[in-house]
Amino acid sequence: MQNKKNILSIRNLKKTYHTKRGETKAVDTFSFNLLDGEFVALVGPSGCGKSTILSILCGLEEKSGGTVSFEEDITYGYMLQQDSLFEWKTILENCLLGLEITGSLNDETKQYVIDLLNTYGLGDFIDSYPSNLSGGMRQRVALIRTLATKPDILLLDEPFSALDYQTRLAVSDDVFRILKKEHKSAIMVTHDLSEAISMADRVIVLSQRPCTIKNIYEIQMTGKSNPIENRKCKEFASYYDRIWKDLDLHV
Q: CA 239, CA 227: separation in Å to the nearest integer?
């Protein structure tokens, strides 16, 4: 990863929420660089501020301090926990929504979306409705909708949490394959350590709120390939144990 350029640089990011009862510090001195084509996973205790970081990056929330800088013209795509598909719109119509909102829908961009649907096994469902799709297929549609506007960085907020375990494994493999083939950088929030280790190039472990970085693991495994196979690598269990200990969960 060392030869790749930085496309996002975060320095001393801070977020404080103010209420009538006082102030709550959610994020404190969070700093890291995202490399071109890199997949980074954020893990940490519930409520530590993982999703807050994503919200700040995509502009849904204002930071309280620090700097966020990125390469010129870098754009974000945000994929949420729920697929949020409109049930009354066809699969193609759902995937074109972002292009319509940004005013960039034309014959060329529409064909790009159709090509994505065909490439990733959804071509036969273009005129179907979300209710006709399985949970895994719906998540693939949500990902293609996110990719439709050609974002440089994808922000994934627990994108598989609503799926059953077997479907979750299969869809994580699909998403990983699509992101690598489309050469996208990604930051994923997840509570699933196995998911983080098997998918990410780096795993960032966060502390209890206010979240700071406790450790960063560069995931290097012998014969590393797709997420399902990565779980079988001999180094997998070691990463899992070390990250689990870093989390320091008092349960």
A: 14
